[in-house]
Amino acid sequence: MIIKRLSLYNFKNHSEKKFEFSPQINCFVGNNGVGKTNILDALHYLSVGKSFLGNTDLNNIKQEEDFFTIDAEIQNEDSEDTLKISQPKEAKKIIKKNDKSYDRMADHIGYLPSVMISPYDSNLISDSGESRRKFLDSMISQTDSSYLYDLIQYQKTIQQRNALLKYFAKNRVWDKDSLEIYNDPITKSGTKIFEKRREFVAKLNPIVQNFYQIISGGKESVSVIYESHLLEETFENLLLQSLERDRMLTYTSKGIHKDDLLFEMDSVLIKKIGSQGQQKSFLISLKLAQMSLIKELTNKTPILLLDDIFDKLDDSRVSQLIELVNQENFGQIFITDTHRERTENVVRRINEESVIFEI
To answer: Domains (ranges, CATH) in the chain?
Structure first.
């Protein structure tokens, strides 16, 4: 998958910007605050329909404007498609492929897979399990369209069950039969999600380990381990066993919405013993493994978005990363940096056809 052209209108700080991209390496250089990361965010929108920075759609409309649009031409193996994302202030977001709107947002996910490596990745190690669950869900959703549907259904049903538990507590009533109505849909969608998560992580782990050895050359070993209540018990039994606890807490305390990924080095959590360099190497290995597995499962080459990596990694590590990506034929790469000369020194040596845009 290759993004040939990109046009931005009223997107964040860009009134109007147009780009024609190389099928290989594309770099955006300029001072801090000029909007380099915003361009990567627009590319992320094309992939998954939302900001990687967590901004709401309306907050991405340029100040004092009424809408933003992102237009792109995408080259497939045997065809060329147009993508357009529009967000008016007073209406819902619209995503169109070849001038036809998607019925559901979930139908677009996986069309243009992407992987982002950014300074925010460190949150995957330091934050709570929620950020790692979202990361896992994002990876699998780009390879399996039915997964996202099951996830949406599961989350809706859990919200409804939790609302009923809170209603019971507020009104000092209890109706076990009404609560059990949710058991079957939660169990069905939750078990499917569990099985797909377990299978995906089992494939991901050895790829992460391989990339870590290449990047770090370290003697230590790393692992990605899937943690879930369902590894020890069926969902039906979980709901039954935790019923009284859920009644007291007024929310569903057990289930795949509590899953986590454990990032370990020599069988200890990497956030406890890993140096900054080891943690960075691990995160890059994780993202490259994500790219490799998406490519394997979908036969599509994801676009790679590298945000501000020169300021977070030393030049030799960046060179090693880009060379590795180039060797693995990972496809189109987009990079942001503040120093043109530094960027040119690295990317021109690796790929003479790279394009550098001054922002």
So the answer is: 1-113+301-359 (3.40.50.300), 127-299 (1.20.1050.90)
